[in-house]
Amino acid sequence: MEDYKYLFKVVLVGNAGVGKTCLVRKFTQGIFPPGQSATIGVDFMIKTVKVGEDKIKLQIWDTAGQERFRSITQSYYRSAHAIVLVYDVACQPSFDCLPEWLGEIEQYANRKVLKILVGNKVDKEDEREVPERIGKNFADANGFDYFLETSALDATNVDTLFQEVATRLTNDMKLTDERFHNFKSNENRDGNISILDRVLERAKCANCRT
Amino acid sequence: MKTSNLAELAARTKSEDCVSPKQDNIHSPPFRKGHFRRSSYESAKIQLDHIKYSGRRGPLYVGRVNSLNSCDLNEAARSTQTVVTFNLDRDRDRECSTSFASIETVPTMDSGLGSVCSKRSSLDRRSQTSNSHFECCSTSDFDSHSSPRLCDDAGFVEEEEEDVELHSRNRDSKLKPNNQQDQSKRRIVLPALNIAKTLFSRNRQSEITSKLWRPNNRIFKESNCISTTGLIFENRPSNLPAKSEEEAAKHRALYQELIEQAKKKEAKEAKEQKRLRELQRKMEDQVAASCKIWVEQILPKWAEIKTSKKCKELWWQGIPSLVRGKVWSLVIGNDLNLTPDLYEICCNRAKMKLEEINKMRAERSISNPIGGAPPSPTNRENTIDSIQLDVGRTFPHLGIFQEGGPYYDLLINLLGAYVCYRPDIGYVQSMSFIAAVLLLQMDPYPAFVAFANLLNRPLQVSFFRLKKPQMTAYFIAFDQFFEQELPELYAHFDAHDVRSDIYLIEWIYTMFAKSLPLDVTCRIWDVYLRDDEDFIFKTAIGILRTFEQHLLSLEFDEIVHFLCHIPDSLTSVELFANIEPLMKPYINTGETAKCKRSFVQILAEVNERVHPYHHLYATEGISMLTLDPNLCTNGLSSSNSTSSGLSTSTHTSISGIKISRSLSFFLRDMLKSPPAASSEQSFTLKKENGMPMSSSSCNLSN
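Structure tokens for the assembled complex are given below, as produced in the milestone run.
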């Protein structure tokens, strides 16, 4: 029986061929598979990371990129704690599709899901089509929680990415747990609580991330 | 005059019969390039000897030889000289005339430490005859010596030229009488002598000097009784006291034991290898036999024989790869009536399209981006773009579908042609795997025909065209079939929320080509083409059954990970043994409610319940199949009402469709049913101990 404090479900989405599977493989197995098959449906990996003293288990769902599979992959969004939207910095179309993906996320994922934008393949600096600034601006304008450029090939920021995901989710979780306990204890003390308070509490909660 | 003739003769015969690469080393220094490496012990010994004898001349050497011959070998060993041993063939010794044999041997009594050939060549060039030396070297002692072994000084190589000179003189003088007798027949050949380089040689066994001399019509065959181990008559360095009898015996026994063990091991390995070879041959024979039957008996009368029991049995064993492509083509047929012309047209169109896209892309990267138009639902020709991406990612371990590989263009053409043939479907990821398997078995055009017709089968149409109601029916049918066949594992999966779609999607889309080893995939396809789509689901159950015990011991994470990455070690024998129980015809007595149903039956029943509302999906697109997860454990409520609340009471009549709770989530999502507030999934992940572990603020917000 593994012991871990929290279990988080991280879902990777993005166009076909942007390197989602390679990112996951690099992070979970430390290898960059030179010949990687296209993902059909979904691939699944697990990795345990440490945030401070806590062991955090990440369930990483690596989805098929092709548009055809969206109606299948969207069912994986539902219970995701974090969605990592990946594009290829050397492939403009993969960046152009981001609004579509955002639409999917907004439609099917939880409202408070942690959204991360990742520009992959920065090792292809010569072929770069999407400048870092553009990616950063897009992330800021569309309510992403975090933006990062990575390379699964030379491991740039791969560990940072998932570590950041784990850290942020853990912190959120701790905050939530705390609030939940306070809320409960308040409830117990007062014996009753007005609906207005409840609504206020929820609003605060909803704003806490954005 | 005579001597010079002799020398010439010697030199000539030498070059004829001996390998003598170096010629001009008469004045070479004692240590030359190409010397064998010596241990420090040997070197020290040699130097010592050298110092001792450097001032002396030939006679000393001869004296030494004589003393060696006359004295006990052990004595020689204990003398200050390092002793080199070599074997002379006993017979040869006897054959030789007394003086002759000895003299012939002397020049080759090379210590092995120096380069023999150079010395010999120098010998041959020498033309001086020295009777005194001859006298000294008269080797009746040699002959009379009981032992075939002769000893020489390891320091021999270090000796000054005079010593070398001695040998040549000796030999030449010996040859003289023979030469007078019969010059025409005279040939001098170095006798075969295997000489150990050093007495206690380490890793130097490879360099054994062995030459053949044939003095005066007497042919000495290369001795074969000599081995490096045999040459060492001293089992320890000479400066150490001899072993006691007891110890020696013990060591001999140990040595024997080692040899015995090695022999036993070798025998065992040989036996195992033989067994494997036998097995292999047996299998090959079997394949060859079945191949013969397929080619000679089945294929000529395909139409009549294909449904026969014998043929089906043979089919189950697997189609030999020689005829596999042919059989597949025959079975898949060509209901679509595709023609080579059509294929040609599609291919050309695909090429044009591809060039167009590549050109557009090049232009766009120069001028600034203009967002790609989303593919229209009726024309998915643009998906041709992603073919290039996926072809290189097809069976990467085979390395033949990658750019520059022999199948790269073939696969691109086939998929491109299909996209142009069916622009409404376009390219769907995973098609590359199916096309690749077909291409491995047949030529491009038959592969295209097989591909198009295969994708026209109901299962493939449902999935590749994303017909959600049909897909739903397949998922539900599999769910029920799974429960019926492997109830324990089914319960385990359900308890851990392992949904069948997680693994089933890849299995169905690629028809196991991506998930299983290629040979296993081909065997599955063999039977799939014989039995149709239900075999895909039977195979799925077969895989689960193969790993059932293992899967039962795993948790959610491991189960999903395992099923997403089936071990490559899975063999077709193992898998088919686990599918076989599913192949028996189901006897439906109708008496017990628990009687087993075949997959086809289950699917038909499910379809009946799902499909009456098919037209409604088509028009409204959503939510006709409302799945309330709270009810799903009792039954799936397929309702003609859009309200999930109502469905509970009004549609109990169709609660026969049972599906697992977890799958119901997936199906609901897939069918794009808008999430009803009541069934909003709680955002709680449970730890194994059952303690709810709040994982998101979602709990609060509800």
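Chain B has a mean pLDDT of 67. Chain B has 34 helices and five strands. Further analysis is deferred to the final report.
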